[in-house]
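Hello support,

Our group uses your service weekly, and this is the first time we've seen a run hang past the timeout. The protein is DUF2779 domain-containing protein. I'm not sure whether the cause is the sequence or the server load. Input pasted verbatim:
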Amino acid sequence: MCLLSKSKILAYRQCPRRLWLEIHRPELREDAAGTLASFQAGHSVGEVARQIYDPDGKGNLIDVGSEGYDGAFARTQALLGKNTPIFEAGFSANGALAFADVMLPLRKGRSRVWRMVEVKSSTSVKEYHRDDVAVQAWIATSAGVPLVSIAVAHIDNSWTYPGGGDYTGLLVEEDLSAEALGRAAEAQSWVTDAQTIARKRKEPGIPTGSQCGIPYECGFQAHCRKHEPQATYPVSWLPRIQSRTLKAHIEEQRVVDMREVPDALLSAQQLRVKQHSLSGTTYFDLHGAAADLGPHKLPGYFLDFETIMFPVPIWKGTRPYQQIPFQFSLHRLSRTGKLEHQSFLDLSGKDPSKAFTQALVAACGERGPVFVYNAGFETARIRELAERFPREKRALLAINERVVDLLPIARERYYHPSQEGSWSIKSVLPAIAPELRYDALDGVQGGGMAMEAYLEAINTGTSSTRKEQLRTQLLDYCGLDTLALVRLWQFFSQCT
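Update from on-call engineer: The timeout came from a worker crash unrelated to the input. Re-ran successfully.
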């Protein structure tokens, strides 16, 4: 019988095919950048959790990597006889194994019993966390652990870091004891069914669907889709598939191509994407775009931010997952057509927020439209800075009053088949200014890569030479973002 980890059991709960592939064809797995980032977030939150639940440092950490499974299980059993916290405690029973994030000893009469806490990097308890703790509780109790309670601890994103390494209050608990301990029969059935799938010689023929991204992004999607009909015009190109009728049609009829979707089920924007994708023609409401931009006279400013966020804050006065701007690029286009560029980038490793704020206020001046792409992002960051720095609040909010969003204009007035249903700046730019290429940039070519470059640059182990290389890459990337906005504005306003 195959010994299944808790993660394998939860993989089965998501999709039996995923479980089979994880066991028999793990080399086919291709995790997305977001999945890898979530792993790293979980690791950092787990480290802080050990500080929170064991402030005196008397607890014991099980390291399965160095101790092996048998060693980890054996040492866990030995530590259950002591009165100290255990981290990553390992249990095995009935063909399943699991490692508990936190085990805390309690007294019940003359007996020692245990409280389990599963630590999550999310900001709330998710539905799949309930399955998680049900499995965890069943394995632990089946292994003979006197478990009396189990909770999920998640991040409180309203908490503000006071500094000094004090993370008290970062985590909040939700007790799930009654629910988790009451689902033993369910958990046992999952393990039994998962074992049946694991023993199969042939890969289950389960088609791709909504389960591929819920609750986790499955790393086997590319493999599974290779064996399915390939659409010439994928239905995924249709933007904002939100109506129940359209969703139901796609799922029930297993629609993969836009040509299979009746026009009557589509919104005006979806119909436009379908028609111009199929015909290979460009849609451009030139006069409408020019009219949209007409009221916003030059000089104009074209602005873009780069931000970083941490599940565990590292700077005093910041919150978990707060988007902290560390860089901006600003192009200024005068009435005479003169184009100037300013930028800000702080790679000191200190909180860049105040210096960023002061530089932004100085660069944006006091009048003229501030063009952005997807205004909700920049304006939200500016409001947050205004709350943190009252002296600059008036000037910052005045910038927000001048913001003009180019994204709604692009969505409403323009579509090129090469966009494949997307209006991201990286999708629109090749159609209107093919000479401006993100893929020609050295190193940093996207927002996720910018975050990675920033983290590497502020790492104390990064050499000065490498840091300067990263600085150049970040400046080039963010500068291209705002130059792209200038070109987009020029393209849309060409008849004025």
